[in-house]
């Protein structure tokens, strides 16, 4: 899930599964589908803005827990109208353990690290680091699962890493170690957690629909986050829940997770992966743009140059042959 946002993106599990390449739908419906797919990276880019606002008021575990209470409820509604709630019980023991692993990595660990990073880093900067998700996933798959990378994808990996290096060091490439603070390390940890989430989903959840897999992962992740959030209760006060915080949590859970996921999977199902994954490249673009427009974050030369390199590198990595 988020997307791809991360959050940006939860659709990575769906994208990782074999997806056919159907013909494009009728032209009268095509514009509506492309409009929804264009909104997906806007929503996933917006998760960084909402996360930045929320992390100033709530501890990471509490923020993640409430976010996924909203997300779980929204996904339950989605399941009701797509497969029926009885589908929740139609999972094997192996699939249930697989969704627990998804909840531990892509929901629990990712959100703890996501909100920790956004408590100290600007939203736009964070969205560019998270753009490394497909790169790290590809490298882990190559190292541990024997996946082969084409020369084009190796070039994409190199450009994406160089771009994020420029962003992290603010253009001074010799200062990498000195530039790595709590926020950067937390975000790199989130990238690794999401990569594991994606690969676990690819290997363990065959035969399980993306909506059902994501819902079970959200249930497990909410449980894990809730247990940790109990520790934060003495430090969380009612005045922390401002209207902006509630709006951000609802946005993250409903729009940034459930709605964006459903729209993204519609694209995978109707257009195929080759045309749909291209929209993922817009997530950091909207993350940076919305950070500038809504939060007033500065657009430095190193941020723009490094971001362009990273986005182009990820585009090459995401190319479907």
Strand content: under 5%
From the spread of the alpha carbons, the general shape counts as: globular
List the uncertain runs. 13-21
Number of strands: 0
Give the SSE string.
Answer: HHHHHHHHHHHHHH
**What proportion of the residues is helical, as a percent range?**
over 70%
Distance between the termini: 24 Å
Rounded to the nearest angstrom, the radius of gyration is 18 Å
- Coarse structural class: mainly alpha
Number of helices: 14
Q: Could you say how many structural domains there are in total?
A: 1
Mean pLDDT, to the nearest integer, reads 84
Main beta sheet strand tally, sense and closure: none
Question: Quick gist of this model?
Answer:
This protein has helices at 12-16, 27-55, 60-82, 93-118, 123-129, 133-145, 151-169, 176-179, 182-204, 210-232, 243-271, 273-276, 283-295, 301-318. With 321 residues, the chain is mainly α.
How would you portray this structure in words?
By secondary structure, this protein is mainly α. The protein has one domain. It is built from 14 helices and no strands. It has helices at 12-16, 27-55, 60-82, 93-118, 123-129, 133-145, 151-169, 176-179, 182-204, 210-232, 243-271, 273-276, 283-295, 301-318. Helix 2 (27-55) packs across helix 13. It is globular, with a radius of gyration of 18 Å. The two termini are 24 Å apart. 52% of the residues are buried. Residues 13-21 have low confidence and may be disordered.
Layout of helices and strands, plus pairs?
Blueprint: H1 12-16, H2 27-55, H3 60-82, H4 93-118, H5 123-129, H6 133-145, H7 151-169, H8 176-179, H9 182-204, H10 210-232, H11 243-271, H12 273-276, H13 283-295, H14 301-318
Helix pairs in contact: 2-4, 2-5, 2-11, 2-13, 3-4, 3-10, 3-11, 4-9, 4-10, 5-13, 6-9, 7-14
